[in-house]
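Example record for the data management plan.
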Amino acid sequence: MAQNDREITRLFHDATKHTVESVRGGGHLLDFANMPIPLKHYPDLEPIPLPVDLPERDAPAVDVLSGRVHVEPAPWGLPDLARVLFFSAGVTRRARMVGGRPIFFRAAASAGALYPTEVYVVCGDLADLPAGVYHFNPVEFALRRLRDGDHRPFLARAAADGGVGGAPVTLVLSGIPWRTTWKYGERGYRHLFWDSGAVLANLFAVTEAAGITSRVLIGFVDDDVSHLLGVGSPEEYPLVIVPLGGGPAAGRPPPAADRPPAIDHRVHPLSPSPQHHEGLAAVHRAGALEHADEVTGWRAAAVQLGTGATDEVGVSPRGPGTLEDVIVRRGSTRRYARDPVGEDVLRWELAVTARPVPADFAGEGRTLLEHFLAVHAVGGVASGIYRWVRGSLEQIERGTFRQEAAHLCLDQPLGGDCAFDAFHCAALGDVIERSGARGYRSALLEAGTAMGRLQLAAYALGHGASGSTFYDDEVSAFLGTEASPMLVTTVGVPSYRPRPGKRPAEMERLRVQLT
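Corresponding structural encoding:
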């Protein structure tokens, strides 16, 4: 990547930092008449309903999240695909916003319930589903076929294989910037990766529970993947490729594949007047890879990045329910009771959070992140600031910091009322210098995955958690680090009883009643 592209990335990150002045004096008013819909819909394509009675696993969620479940994989079928789609990106709750507009809460967290992430399926012939390229509609719980035939060879070439060629199913996650920039301006670019990371946290857990291998690829030829999906107008970017059930990727050359013809299926408008942000588009272009050899070169540099991730999760506290139970119970906690949690809870949840992500953006078993803590109410751990280092807590400063933590989380009380805050940080200067704008995407994505894992771990123990944005430079100063904060997760005991979500069959009955 050219030095100019690295500079574009650094300048964009600095320009989208939060400060007290930028938040309180930004003057950005929400135009609800132009609010984007959080769902992509192809009105001219027939829906293919997904089965709602899904196979579930009986392993406790705490064992799945700890990596202690070993299952022999079974042949893929439509119910298995439906299970992965629902528990990673499906609709688990329905509510109404002010003004009567329905809002559909998903299995994974999204800031402001804006849901910028779309999910596509590229597969060979499966039981009950012919080979093709499909779009997933989570509200209808249905697929729509965008292309007929087996296009895995073309996608594998775009990804310099990465395991795609041997996978019966590959998911592609894309991001629609206008859904987040409507509220957050150009900082909404970060939300594309944070939200996709939350989806991946669920996906990794769901596939691991079923014995299905999964790996996230952030390196691929952008234009080829956009072409395959038929995305780009309105503005939409492919973000990650996730082969499911594939074999080892090492040394596999990209297969020969012809470029398929263009597609342009009609899509329901996002909003009356979607807005374009040139700075956001520029930083995304800065990370673009143009051919498979460039992907291979970027990936070879990326595997040199990172430090050792938490390689083993200790014995977990007991928690109620299976992984599926936890996912439908999960929400984003908005109020905490200031009650304490135990030291074993904190250590287990952080170990789950810091497990290595199976990905191409860092070396095997490595991570781009550092995790810092502001501990407020953890039995056996003195209040203060800590750094998590592969299972150990290193105290940085002892003291009571509830007020400071709330301020750092954009002066939101949940940052100070929780039991502890986890600050997911990265040595961003080094990541961008060695991995370019694609490395910037990677650090944001891994932070979103860490937040999603920490939410699942907290809910698995009957607690609550919520992601939070932050005052960038103030966080680094508070922690005494040169690392850049990528995301913050608050964890604690909710002060209310959250309403649980529903499984697909229950959501289907609700949908029928409403229509």
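Summary line stored alongside the record: The chain is about 35% helix and 20% strand.
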